[in-house]
Amino acid sequence: MRDGSTLAHTQWRLGILIAQIARRWRARLDQRIAEFGLTEARWLALLSISRGGEGMTQKDLAARLLIEGPTLVRTLDWLEGEGLVERREAAHDRRAKTLHLTGKARPLIHRIEAAATGVRAEILAGIPEAELATCLAVLERVATGLAVPSPPPPAEEAREAYRPDSG
């Protein structure tokens, strides 16, 4: 850390650790769900529709998944082709499509949820509930901070701040 402070080093380590945890957690879950024949994009879309409620619009799902509409369309085309999702015209806007799970999707979602529950239990085993609650509270504050767009740094400051070894 350029300023050498303990706080700056801790913040840097936290950023790296959050990224590593996210990748490893997702990889572990992908391993478990691979047997169902679903890619990450597909199982995330199914779970989001399931958790978000029937009749969610494609636009809302894309926002929930933090992806662009065209990317989602390809995923939904596949899910619809497999008979897992139906698209219907939205009552409030005929240009919009609402998403509905089929009867074929429900048992699969239960299997995905069970796999996710098992992975969470393995990863978080032995961590007391109070510590998990504290960790969650801190991460929620981090997420809130990330939801607020930050202004770009002045050009000179941005050049000085970037160093390939700064990670």
TrEMBL record:
PROSITE patterns: HTH_MARR_1, HTH_MARR_2. GO terms for molecular function: DNA binding; DNA-binding transcription factor activity. Residues 11-144 form the HTH marR-type domain. Residues 156-167 have a biased composition (Basic and acidic residues). Gene3D superfamilies: Winged helix-like DNA-binding domain superfamily/Winged helix DNA-binding domain. Keywords: DNA-binding, Transcription, Transcription regulation. SUPFAM superfamilies: Winged helix' DNA-binding domain (SSF46785). InterPro entries: HTH_MarR-typ, Tscrpt_reg_MarR-type_CS, WH-like_DNA-bd_sf, WH_DNA-bd_sf. Residues 146-167 are annotated as: Disordered. PANTHER family: TRANSCRIPTIONAL REGULATOR, MARR, TRANSCRIPTIONAL REPRESSOR OF EMRAB OPERON. This is MarR family transcriptional regulator.
